[in-house]
Amino acid sequence: MTLREIAQMAGVSVATVSRVVNDVDRHKVSDATRNRILEIARSGRYRPNPQAVSLVTRRPPNTLGLVIPYNSHVFESFYFTEIIRGAVDAAADHGMSIALFVPNRDAPASAYHDTLGKGGALAAAAGVLLIGTRVNDPAIRQCRESKIPFVVVSNSVPDPDVNSVDCDNRSGAQEATRHLLRLGHTRIAFIGGPEGSANARDRLAGYQTALAEAGIFEDPALIAGGQFEEQRGRNAMQRILARGVRPTALFAANDVMALGAMKALKREGLRVPDDVAVVGFDDVPLAQHVEPALTTVHQPIYQLGRRAAEILTAQIISGSTDATRAMLRTRLVIRESCGARRGEA
Length: 345
Fold this sequence. Notes:
Layout: H1 3-10, H2 14-21, H3 31-43, H4 50-57, E1 63-67, H5 78-93, E2 97-101, H6 110-116, E3 127-131, H7 138-146, E4 150-153, E5 163-167, H8 169-182, E6 188-192, H9 198-213, E7 223-225, H10 230-242, E8 249-252, H11 255-267, E9 277-282, E10 295-298, H12 301-318, E11 325-328, E12 331-333
Parallel strand pairs: 1-2, 1-3, 3-4, 4-5, 5-11, 6-7, 6-8, 8-9, 9-10
Antiparallel strand pairs: 10-12
Helix pairs in contact: 1-2, 1-3, 5-12, 6-7, 8-9, 10-11
């Protein structure tokens, strides 16, 4: 039932119905009229449009949109679920809920327009969290066009006017590579993430910087892409080994690729860490339970989601358009897979 239909049945104006269902200007409507309108609205199963309510009440809707690019493993991934958990907890602190949108694998750019544009599923959201979006992502462009407050999570966007929360991927990768260098390795392989991912780019840059500091020539034969997936990490390690220049150490740009690479090394009869030392990135729970336990770069994944939602809700409440760019610190967690004793280096 629409506002106009309710007004016709109640014998009042649409403006009067709007005041009642949106609970504004109570003094302008008598109790009898208010009760009659509410009874008609209930019987007609009227559901207010959050965007319209926001315009009338001048209060934002109580929902944050959360957009994650399609990935067949997205809901199996500790990384994504921890970010979501952090965002949900922070939103709940402000009495807000989260609406999740995961586009189809082959969704065109227009899918974001249909979702974030006028009349779309997330158009009425108070703001939007964009997780893992890539540089020049259509979701960013659509949020700007729709004038929806948004925060980019877990990807550094170069535009200083965009709210963003990320970990210091470059510094973390640099420290991981330095650790392997301190252990005496000079042939250090690298398995990276997908093209277009700022995280993958920054972790590669950290690896390259550490090698350059040590005066070691970067060997393209020791570098392969793994798309942040375990099977891709396994395949990447096999490609590196097939090139004939066997590394003595490996830095993988996330833990699941490191675990896949360890399986490939085992299949080739190579032992970790005796033959090849391995370091990952993320510090997912499984990292400490594999054999040997994985040395990795810890990043505060839960805090990524929580901090992003806090920035977004603060901007919504204040009405500010000033961008906030947060960079969270990482730390190296030394376990057995690198060949160093706990606490060394």
